[in-house]
Write a structure and sequence with these properties.
Elements lengths: L96 H24 L6 E11 L9 E9 L7 H18 L5 H4 L3 E2 L7 E9 L7 H7 L8 E7 L4 E6 L8 E5 L9 E2 L2 E5 L13 H17 L4
Parallel strand pairs: 7-9
Antiparallel strand pairs: 1-2, 1-4, 2-3, 4-5, 5-6, 6-7, 8-9
Length: 314
Amino acid sequence: MFEPNQTVTPPPAPAGPPFEYPSSAPLPPPAASSYEYPPSVPPQGMPSGAGAGVPRSASHRRTAAATPDEPESRHLHAVPVEAPRGPNGDPAADITAAFRGEVVSRLRRFSVLHTRHAWERRRRDPLSPHGIALFYLERGVPVLQQLRTATRIFLADDEANDLPMLLYGMARHAHEGYQGDPRFDPRTTMANKCDPMSATAVFAGVGVCTLDTPYGTWAEAQRHAANEFDLPGRCFARLIDGTRLLLDRGGRKQFNGLAVESSVDDTNAHYGVPSMQWRWNPSLAEIEPNDPTYHVWRWMSELGRIIDIGSQPR
Protein backbone atom coordinates (compact mmCIF):
# COMPACT_ATOMS: atom_id res chain seq x y z
CA MET A 1 0.00 0.00 0.00
CA PHE A 2 1.24 3.45 -0.90
CA GLU A 3 2.32 5.72 1.94
CA PRO A 4 2.40 9.49 1.34
CA ASN A 5 6.09 9.75 2.22
CA GLN A 6 7.14 6.67 0.28
CA THR A 7 10.29 7.15 -1.80
CA VAL A 8 11.78 5.29 -4.72
CA THR A 9 15.39 4.25 -4.18
CA PRO A 10 17.29 4.72 -7.46
CA PRO A 11 19.74 2.08 -8.72
CA PRO A 12 23.45 2.64 -7.96
CA ALA A 13 25.13 5.35 -9.99
CA PRO A 14 27.43 4.18 -12.82
CA ALA A 15 31.18 4.63 -12.53
CA GLY A 16 32.66 7.89 -13.68
CA PRO A 17 32.67 11.53 -12.62
CA PRO A 18 29.37 12.89 -11.22
CA PHE A 19 27.16 14.93 -13.49
CA GLU A 20 27.00 18.64 -12.73
CA TYR A 21 24.03 20.53 -14.05
CA PRO A 22 25.41 23.38 -16.20
CA SER A 23 23.32 26.21 -14.82
CA SER A 24 25.20 28.85 -16.80
CA ALA A 25 25.51 26.94 -20.06
CA PRO A 26 23.13 27.82 -22.90
CA LEU A 27 20.17 25.48 -23.17
CA PRO A 28 18.61 24.18 -26.38
CA PRO A 29 15.26 25.60 -27.48
CA PRO A 30 12.11 23.96 -26.09
CA ALA A 31 11.17 20.62 -27.61
CA ALA A 32 8.46 20.46 -30.26
CA SER A 33 4.88 19.93 -29.17
CA SER A 34 4.93 16.24 -30.13
CA TYR A 35 5.52 13.89 -27.22
CA GLU A 36 7.79 11.54 -29.18
CA TYR A 37 10.61 10.49 -26.92
CA PRO A 38 12.33 7.11 -27.22
CA PRO A 39 12.11 5.26 -23.89
CA SER A 40 15.81 4.36 -24.01
CA VAL A 41 16.97 7.99 -24.34
CA PRO A 42 17.23 10.20 -21.23
CA PRO A 43 15.44 13.57 -21.25
CA GLN A 44 17.18 16.56 -22.79
CA GLY A 45 19.85 17.96 -20.55
CA MET A 46 20.13 14.76 -18.48
CA PRO A 47 22.91 12.17 -18.55
CA SER A 48 22.30 8.54 -19.39
CA GLY A 49 22.23 5.95 -16.65
CA ALA A 50 19.53 5.34 -14.09
CA GLY A 51 21.55 6.71 -11.21
CA ALA A 52 23.44 9.53 -12.90
CA GLY A 53 22.80 13.16 -12.10
CA VAL A 54 22.57 15.32 -9.07
CA PRO A 55 21.48 13.62 -5.85
CA ARG A 56 17.79 13.75 -5.15
CA SER A 57 17.25 16.49 -2.61
CA ALA A 58 15.09 16.46 0.46
CA SER A 59 12.22 18.00 -1.50
CA HIS A 60 11.56 14.60 -3.06
CA ARG A 61 11.31 12.99 0.36
CA ARG A 62 9.67 15.71 2.42
CA THR A 63 6.08 15.76 1.27
CA ALA A 64 3.46 17.81 3.04
CA ALA A 65 1.08 15.69 5.06
CA ALA A 66 -2.65 15.66 4.51
CA THR A 67 -4.55 18.61 5.85
CA PRO A 68 -7.60 18.16 8.11
CA ASP A 69 -10.06 18.62 5.23
CA GLU A 70 -8.02 16.21 3.07
CA PRO A 71 -7.59 13.06 5.19
CA GLU A 72 -4.76 10.71 4.35
CA SER A 73 -7.25 8.00 3.39
CA ARG A 74 -7.79 9.98 0.18
CA HIS A 75 -4.13 9.43 -0.65
CA LEU A 76 -4.43 5.65 -0.51
CA HIS A 77 -6.69 4.98 -3.47
CA ALA A 78 -5.45 2.02 -5.48
CA VAL A 79 -4.45 3.23 -8.94
CA PRO A 80 -4.67 0.51 -11.63
CA VAL A 81 -2.16 -0.06 -14.39
CA GLU A 82 -2.79 2.11 -17.44
CA ALA A 83 -4.63 0.55 -20.35
CA PRO A 84 -2.87 -0.04 -23.71
CA ARG A 85 -2.66 2.78 -26.22
CA GLY A 86 -3.71 2.90 -29.83
CA PRO A 87 -2.25 0.56 -32.48
CA ASN A 88 0.43 3.14 -33.40
CA GLY A 89 1.25 4.08 -29.82
CA ASP A 90 -0.49 7.45 -30.25
CA PRO A 91 -1.81 9.18 -27.14
CA ALA A 92 -5.31 7.96 -26.39
CA ALA A 93 -6.22 11.24 -24.67
CA ASP A 94 -8.47 13.30 -26.93
CA ILE A 95 -7.87 16.84 -25.67
CA THR A 96 -11.01 18.85 -26.42
CA ALA A 97 -11.89 22.47 -25.72
CA ALA A 98 -14.15 21.29 -22.89
CA PHE A 99 -11.31 19.28 -21.35
CA ARG A 100 -9.04 22.35 -21.46
CA GLY A 101 -11.75 24.30 -19.69
CA GLU A 102 -11.93 21.63 -16.98
CA VAL A 103 -8.14 21.79 -16.58
CA VAL A 104 -8.36 25.55 -16.02
CA SER A 105 -11.11 25.14 -13.43
CA ARG A 106 -9.20 22.42 -11.60
CA LEU A 107 -5.98 24.42 -11.57
CA ARG A 108 -7.83 27.44 -10.22
CA ARG A 109 -9.22 25.34 -7.36
CA PHE A 110 -5.81 23.77 -6.72
CA SER A 111 -4.27 27.25 -6.57
CA VAL A 112 -6.88 28.51 -4.08
CA LEU A 113 -6.48 25.48 -1.77
CA HIS A 114 -2.70 25.60 -1.96
CA THR A 115 -2.77 29.30 -1.12
CA ARG A 116 -4.95 28.65 1.92
CA HIS A 117 -2.71 25.89 3.26
CA ALA A 118 0.50 27.86 2.58
CA TRP A 119 -0.90 30.91 4.38
CA GLU A 120 -2.05 28.89 7.40
CA ARG A 121 1.34 27.17 7.69
CA ARG A 122 3.58 30.09 6.82
CA ARG A 123 5.06 30.22 10.36
CA ARG A 124 4.89 26.54 11.32
CA ASP A 125 6.21 23.76 9.09
CA PRO A 126 5.87 26.02 6.00
CA LEU A 127 5.00 24.75 2.56
CA SER A 128 6.79 25.34 -0.70
CA PRO A 129 5.12 28.04 -2.80
CA HIS A 130 4.80 25.52 -5.65
CA GLY A 131 2.54 22.53 -6.26
CA ILE A 132 2.43 20.02 -9.12
CA ALA A 133 -0.56 18.32 -10.78
CA LEU A 134 -0.60 15.36 -13.17
CA PHE A 135 -3.67 15.28 -15.42
CA TYR A 136 -5.38 12.10 -16.61
CA LEU A 137 -8.33 11.64 -18.94
CA GLU A 138 -11.00 9.12 -17.97
CA ARG A 139 -12.49 7.65 -21.12
CA GLY A 140 -16.07 6.46 -21.52
CA VAL A 141 -17.62 9.15 -19.30
CA PRO A 142 -19.30 12.50 -20.11
CA VAL A 143 -16.77 15.07 -21.28
CA LEU A 144 -17.17 17.29 -18.22
CA GLN A 145 -16.32 14.32 -15.99
CA GLN A 146 -13.21 13.16 -17.85
CA LEU A 147 -10.54 15.02 -15.89
CA ARG A 148 -8.71 13.18 -13.10
CA THR A 149 -5.72 14.58 -11.22
CA ALA A 150 -2.87 13.48 -9.00
CA THR A 151 -1.35 16.37 -7.05
CA ARG A 152 1.60 17.01 -4.79
CA ILE A 153 2.57 19.83 -2.47
CA PHE A 154 5.95 20.06 -0.75
CA LEU A 155 7.45 21.21 2.49
CA ALA A 156 9.64 24.26 1.97
CA ASP A 157 13.37 23.83 1.33
CA ASP A 158 15.93 25.32 -1.04
CA GLU A 159 15.09 23.14 -4.04
CA ALA A 160 11.33 23.03 -3.46
CA ASN A 161 11.32 26.84 -3.42
CA ASP A 162 12.95 27.00 -6.88
CA LEU A 163 10.28 25.98 -9.41
CA PRO A 164 12.52 25.07 -12.39
CA MET A 165 14.81 22.99 -10.15
CA LEU A 166 11.80 21.35 -8.53
CA LEU A 167 10.48 20.30 -11.95
CA TYR A 168 13.95 19.17 -12.98
CA GLY A 169 14.15 16.99 -9.87
CA MET A 170 10.69 15.54 -10.51
CA ALA A 171 11.70 14.73 -14.08
CA ARG A 172 14.79 12.92 -12.77
CA HIS A 173 12.63 11.08 -10.24
CA ALA A 174 10.28 9.88 -13.00
CA HIS A 175 13.15 8.94 -15.32
CA GLU A 176 14.91 6.91 -12.63
CA GLY A 177 11.62 5.33 -11.55
CA TYR A 178 10.73 4.06 -15.00
CA GLN A 179 14.31 2.87 -15.54
CA GLY A 180 14.47 0.93 -12.29
CA ASP A 181 10.94 -0.39 -11.67
CA PRO A 182 8.55 -1.75 -14.34
CA ARG A 183 5.66 -1.11 -11.92
CA PHE A 184 6.55 2.55 -11.35
CA ASP A 185 3.47 4.78 -11.31
CA PRO A 186 3.84 8.55 -10.76
CA ARG A 187 0.31 8.72 -9.34
CA THR A 188 1.43 6.82 -6.27
CA THR A 189 5.16 7.52 -6.00
CA MET A 190 5.19 11.19 -7.01
CA ALA A 191 1.84 12.46 -5.68
CA ASN A 192 0.30 12.72 -2.24
CA LYS A 193 -3.30 13.00 -3.40
CA CYS A 194 -4.95 11.16 -6.29
CA ASP A 195 -8.48 11.08 -7.69
CA PRO A 196 -10.03 7.62 -8.11
CA MET A 197 -9.72 6.51 -11.74
CA SER A 198 -10.23 3.39 -13.82
CA ALA A 199 -7.75 1.33 -15.82
CA THR A 200 -8.78 3.19 -18.98
CA ALA A 201 -7.58 6.57 -17.71
CA VAL A 202 -4.66 7.91 -19.77
CA PHE A 203 -2.04 10.54 -19.04
CA ALA A 204 -3.01 13.97 -20.38
CA GLY A 205 -0.45 16.51 -19.13
CA VAL A 206 1.29 18.38 -16.32
CA GLY A 207 0.21 21.42 -14.33
CA VAL A 208 1.88 23.71 -11.81
CA CYS A 209 0.54 26.22 -9.32
CA THR A 210 2.81 28.78 -7.72
CA LEU A 211 2.61 31.70 -5.32
CA ASP A 212 5.45 33.50 -7.13
CA THR A 213 3.51 35.76 -9.47
CA PRO A 214 3.99 38.88 -11.62
CA TYR A 215 2.74 40.82 -8.59
CA GLY A 216 5.65 39.64 -6.44
CA THR A 217 7.28 36.62 -4.85
CA TRP A 218 5.66 34.50 -2.16
CA ALA A 219 7.94 36.05 0.47
CA GLU A 220 6.88 39.55 -0.59
CA ALA A 221 3.20 38.65 -0.78
CA GLN A 222 3.20 37.35 2.80
CA ARG A 223 4.50 40.66 4.13
CA HIS A 224 1.73 42.69 2.54
CA ALA A 225 -1.27 40.36 2.82
CA ALA A 226 -3.82 40.60 5.61
CA ASN A 227 -5.24 37.15 4.87
CA GLU A 228 -5.31 34.45 2.19
CA PHE A 229 -7.77 36.41 0.04
CA ASP A 230 -5.13 39.07 -0.61
CA LEU A 231 -2.79 36.50 -2.21
CA PRO A 232 -2.57 36.08 -6.00
CA GLY A 233 -1.46 32.89 -7.72
CA ARG A 234 -0.15 31.71 -11.06
CA CYS A 235 -0.64 28.36 -12.84
CA PHE A 236 0.92 26.65 -15.85
CA ALA A 237 -0.36 23.66 -17.80
CA ARG A 238 1.27 21.65 -20.59
CA LEU A 239 -1.11 19.09 -22.12
CA ILE A 240 -0.30 16.02 -24.16
CA ASP A 241 -1.42 17.62 -27.44
CA GLY A 242 1.04 20.49 -27.00
CA THR A 243 -1.46 22.97 -25.51
CA ARG A 244 0.04 25.50 -23.11
CA LEU A 245 -2.13 27.34 -20.62
CA LEU A 246 -1.06 30.23 -18.40
CA LEU A 247 -3.38 31.34 -15.59
CA ASP A 248 -3.03 34.44 -13.43
CA ARG A 249 -5.38 34.44 -10.44
CA GLY A 250 -5.67 37.83 -8.81
CA GLY A 251 -5.92 38.60 -5.13
CA ARG A 252 -8.26 41.14 -3.57
CA LYS A 253 -6.40 44.06 -5.16
CA GLN A 254 -6.87 42.42 -8.57
CA PHE A 255 -10.60 41.87 -7.86
CA ASN A 256 -10.02 38.10 -7.53
CA GLY A 257 -10.29 37.71 -11.30
CA LEU A 258 -8.69 35.01 -13.44
CA ALA A 259 -6.87 35.73 -16.71
CA VAL A 260 -6.26 32.70 -18.93
CA GLU A 261 -3.88 32.60 -21.89
CA SER A 262 -3.99 29.61 -24.23
CA SER A 263 -1.67 28.61 -27.06
CA VAL A 264 -4.70 27.06 -28.81
CA ASP A 265 -7.50 29.13 -30.33
CA ASP A 266 -10.66 27.23 -29.41
CA THR A 267 -14.17 27.98 -28.18
CA ASN A 268 -12.91 28.78 -24.68
CA ALA A 269 -11.19 31.90 -26.05
CA HIS A 270 -14.45 33.17 -27.57
CA TYR A 271 -16.17 34.04 -24.35
CA GLY A 272 -15.38 35.79 -21.12
CA VAL A 273 -16.97 36.80 -17.87
CA PRO A 274 -15.60 39.30 -15.36
CA SER A 275 -14.16 36.51 -13.19
CA MET A 276 -12.51 34.55 -16.03
CA GLN A 277 -11.13 36.07 -19.21
CA TRP A 278 -9.63 33.80 -21.91
CA ARG A 279 -7.14 35.06 -24.47
CA TRP A 280 -5.52 33.25 -27.37
CA ASN A 281 -1.76 33.75 -27.13
CA PRO A 282 0.13 31.72 -29.78
CA SER A 283 3.46 33.05 -28.48
CA LEU A 284 3.13 30.67 -25.50
CA ALA A 285 4.21 27.89 -27.85
CA GLU A 286 7.48 29.70 -28.65
CA ILE A 287 8.91 30.89 -25.35
CA GLU A 288 12.36 32.46 -25.79
CA PRO A 289 15.29 31.30 -23.59
CA ASN A 290 15.53 34.73 -21.97
CA ASP A 291 11.91 34.58 -20.80
CA PRO A 292 11.62 34.11 -16.99
CA THR A 293 9.22 31.20 -17.55
CA TYR A 294 11.38 29.39 -20.10
CA HIS A 295 12.80 26.82 -17.69
CA VAL A 296 9.37 26.18 -16.17
CA TRP A 297 7.92 25.27 -19.57
CA ARG A 298 11.05 23.33 -20.51
CA TRP A 299 11.01 21.01 -17.50
CA MET A 300 7.23 20.67 -17.48
CA SER A 301 7.54 19.40 -21.05
CA GLU A 302 10.30 16.96 -20.08
CA LEU A 303 8.37 15.66 -17.09
CA GLY A 304 5.28 15.16 -19.26
CA ARG A 305 7.28 13.44 -21.99
CA ILE A 306 8.86 10.99 -19.55
CA ILE A 307 5.52 10.08 -17.96
CA ASP A 308 3.76 9.77 -21.30
CA ILE A 309 6.33 7.37 -22.75
CA GLY A 310 6.93 5.54 -19.47
CA SER A 311 3.22 4.82 -19.00
CA GLN A 312 2.96 2.97 -22.31
CA PRO A 313 3.00 -0.84 -22.19
CA ARG A 314 6.52 -2.26 -22.12
